[in-house]
Structure formats: structure tokens, C-alpha cells
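Morning!

This is the sequence you dropped in the shared folder:
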Amino acid sequence: MPANAAVVASRRTPFRPVPVDAVRMRDGFWKVKMDLNHERGLPVLLNHLEEHGVVDNFRLVSGRKKVERRGPCFTDSDLFKWMEGAAWDLATYDEPERRTVLESIIDDVVAAQQPDGYLNTLFHGELADQRFRNLDHEHELYCAGHMIQAAIAHYRVTGSDKFLGSAIRYADYLTKEFGPGKREKADGHPEIEMALIELYRTTGAKKYLDLAGFFLSYFGLPGSTDICAMNARGEMPWMRHAVRALYLSCAGVDYFAETGDAIYGESVRNLWRDLTSAKMYVTGGVGSRYQWESIGDPYELPNERAYAETCAAVANAMFNYRLAQTLGEADFADEMERALYNGVISGVGLDGKSYFYVNPLACFREHQRQEWYGTTCCPTNMVRLLASLPGYVYSVGEREVRVNLYANSRVDYQTTDGTAFSLDVVTDYPWDGNVDVTIELSQPAELTLSFRIPWWCRSAAAAVNGQEIQAEPKPRSYLQIKRLWNSGDRVHLNLGMPVVLVEADSRVREDMCSVAVQRGPLVYCAESVDNPGASIRDLELASGEFQVERSELLGGICVLRGKGRTPVSSADRGPLYRIRGSVDLPMREVDVMLIPYYAWANRGPSHMTVWLPFRK
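The structure's back. C-alpha cells below.
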């Protein structure tokens, strides 16, 4: 019984993700995040969902409780995302008490389902006969999609079909209501498309795949090159809304994986190129405009006014995760890693229970995480992503095992041809580039072990059983080691982790003459609490050389120390606008300390910037 965070890949895909419950994360970077999510994120968020009436809405509909409905029209989806996260969490932390809590909430949800299969707490009482009245804005199918995904996760982890049966009844109802000659409309917020394709993979019922294809065609995805700026009818210009566009793109990958439709295959490649070449932040964040939470025009990537919603970074990771399995290229796993280590986890505090909705790349005002938002899509997306993370680390092909992310972990699974294997991976990544892998087999087997060489790595070396291999590892590719493996064979991989200065395309006007500092997969930033001798808005780099220092600060990080400069505080700054060169601003040298971007805003109000001026 498979358990995976996003996809059970089709027979058409070259690689398949490894189930969540086949991977055991050990002490290290991601295990800390998952432990906090388990101990604080999920339970604290459930308390908030209870306190704000989100769970009671279902009890109201079922008659189990007399209350007023509370929350936005789409608030059902927040509970469903929490339920999905709670289900994946059981794959790693199978605690009877947690299972009991989840089962109780499932009972409350299933009890609210109508006899015909429909389930949405908004359309109850006086609104009971107004279903699907405003799909553009009330998002019934979006909620339905998250319900279906939560039910699939629960089924894959527990084997129980109680919740899955409820989801199937709802999906069957939707197939009767929507499609050619029926309701020819799609939801304003894509999500149902991914869910229906995953339900098809789970049940084998093609009607779910067909309905997903109908919804996708409504948006005009095939052939699109502008991240779904509008649908096939020229409507809904808000489809440049970052999360909606990326969810739709995820579904496009899934549909291509199942159908092999070449038009969809080219479309999702075009969408990826368009995003990564001109519309994505260095952190993997997506969405440059507060207006409509939208993506913006090419190279429109403001820093202080970046929207970069946490949900959009999660969706970006999901998109690249799917592409990595379906198309198999290292570039996609590189971008998945960029998003996960930066734009995604910047959205959750080091306390594991507070969140950002937006993630600017520069901040000169108060900007703090909160435990609850009236629209709580980002916290619920975070808890389900972190609980499902083990499913992102490895993938398998025919006689091939791929390591997509480097994490202290153990995987016990089999390749697509049925060869059972175990990999024991020991690493302190992302703080250190050394990775030690031991393979265990029941008998010798010819396999290819593939290790991703990230785009930022300019020097890598590998050895098998102490013997250096001859192949030269190249960035943006997988180092493939094919041989007859014996149980106990070891691979040592060293990924050089120099501090690098990243520059933007000159068409990104806000970043001209500035650099972002990166080490390994982590983008760094300057935060005012670490640089009291300078105004963060004025701070410049004086050198590209940094010392790397391991610190217990912020849960244990590597800090970067270097040299910078800032204007002398008493200097006359001159008028706001002046003839170029007419003001010679005296500068003074200062020490500069940088921390990983994901860790900022965990020590009270502060100023921060990722991009720093650097005059070579």
C-alpha cells in the first residue's frame, strides 16, 4: 500500500517517489523541522481550528452541535489540509492518541456529508439549494479537492477506507454534475484537478481522470506560456494568482504523466521555463504583487514588497517534485530544493507553531509570524508539507535509486523492477557537504545509484569503498554509479560548499549592482539584530570573502562573517535627487554577519535584506 505526499507515479514516468513510510528521518536538519511540526505545529493548529469554529462547522451540518457557522467560505479546506498533514504524520510518528484524534475528526466530517455525496459547510440551511452558485470565488471544488487528498493520505497510511469511501462518494457526485453537457465550469481556485488524478491512481476509475482533464481544458492549460494568465474563454485574469497558477501547473504534470499527451508535456515545460527564467525569487518564492497575490510581469521581482506567499513556495516545491519524477531532469530537483530550504521554511518559525503568510526579501518595518490568520491556508499547507517531506527525498526507477535531497535518513524500498534495497545515509547537510551512503541488499545486484549534483556545486568528488570514481560530477546533473553492488558497499560523496555570490539578470532592476549570498542550498540574509553597527537599509558588502562559523544560534546554524561598509552617521546625505557624483558620501567599514534567510524574524522585530550592494 503506497504512502506518498504527492504522486503515485504512472507507468509512463521514468521515476517513482518512495513512500513516506519507507523513509526514516534521523537527527538532522529536516528531522528537527518534522519533530517541531509533530509536537507543536499540528496540535497547536488543531486547537486554533477548534477555537475558530472550523471543526464545529461540520458538527453544525451533521446536527452534532448547535452553533453558528464561522470563517470564510473556503475554510473547510483548512481542516482538510490539517487532516492530510495529520495522516502523513502517522507514517513517521504512529502514536495511538494522535490516531484517535484524527479518527474522531474524520467521524465529524463524514457525518456532515449529504446523502448524494455533497459536502461543504457553507451550503447548509438557507443556502442548501445554492450549490455551485459562484465557483469563481466560493471555491467548493477547491475544498472538495483538499478533502479527497486528505482521504487518500489517510488510506495510504492506515489502510482504512472509511474516509476514502466518503471522498469517493463526493467525487462520484461531481462526475454526475460536471463535464461536457453538464455544468461546464471549473473552480476559480485549482486543486480538484490534482485530487481527481490522484483518486484515479488510487482507485483505477478513469472517470476521475476524465473529469480532471475537463477542468484543465477549461483553463486552457495546453500551449500556455504565461502561467495561465487567463482561461480558454479569456476570463479570470486573476489566474496569474501565484498559488492557483502553480496548483494548475501541478495538475498539468499529473495529467501528462497519466496520459502521455505531448501538448501537456510541452506546456508544463514552458510553464517551468517561464517561471524560473523571469518570475521566481532566488529563494524559490513566487508572487511579486500584493494585488491579486499574483506573479507579475517578467523580471518584476521587488524585494521589500515581495508577496511570495508561503503557499506559493509550497506549490513551487510540489510542481518541481512532480516534474522531477515525470521528466527526470536534475534541474527540477534543484528548484525543489531551492524552494524547500528557503521560500518554504521561511514561512514557519523556529518555534514550529508560528507562520508567515508573505515572505519579503527585504524588510524595514515590523513583520512577525503569527499562529493564526483569518485565511489560514499557509499554516495548514506547512503542516502537511513537513509531515510528508520523507516522500520527497528519494525516487526509484528500473534498477535505479535516486537521491534527490540529502538528509540524515534510511530508506527501505524496492526499484520499479522489484529489486529490494536499503540505503543508510549519514550527513550533516546543509551545513556540510559530506554524504556517506551504505547500501544493504539481500544478494548482490546490479543497480545504478544516482546522486544529484546541485547547480551551486562547482567541485564534487565521489568514492566507492574508498576508491575514487573516475567520472567527473557535473552541476545540474545526477552522478550515476552503475555497478554490481554488494551489501555493505559504501559511497562517499563530497559536495563542495563554498560561499558564493549570486547575481540577478540585469533586467531585474531592483537587484542591479547587488548580490545575494549563498552557501550550499541556503540563501543568506543580513538581519539587524546581528548587525547593530549599521542600518540594514544602508549596508553594503565590502568583500566577497566570508568565514563560515558553526553556531548554536537559532537552533544550530552556520553563520557567515565578512566585511561591509555603511555611510558615516554624521555625513550629509545630500538632497533626495542630485546630479550624479555631486555627493561623495564618506563610508566606514563594519563587520557583517549573515544568517540563513529561513531563520530571520525569530528574535523579535528586526530589519532584514537578502540582496546587498556590492561594488567590485
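Headline: The radius of gyration is 25 Å.

More detail when I'm at my desk.
O.
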